[in-house]
Amino acid sequence: MNIKDYQGNSIAVSIDGVHPNDAMKLNSRAVITAIDDFKKSAKVAYANAKGKKTIPAVKKELKMLGATQYYARWQSDSSSYTDDSVKIWFN
Prior knowledge:
Elements: E1 3-6, E2 9-14, H1 20-25, H2 29-41, E3 43-48, H3 54-65, E4 70-75, E5 85-90
Antiparallel strand pairs: 1-2, 2-4, 3-5, 4-5
């Protein structure tokens, strides 16, 4: 599973032709287009992270969904912030 923390943001990504580092930085029109195109045709789910760390919650949800391709991006956990849920696009 490609899940990482980068400068205060976390990302979970496995999309054909998109490298996780490129998806995190969004520094290429081709990467942005590939992610946007994927999101248009993907199903949506939410990882319940209320009172939990978000990365383990996202990993658990992806495993339960049996997702082979997926994309999620959210603000990383900190002492002052945790998400109640994380939106995941998947196929």
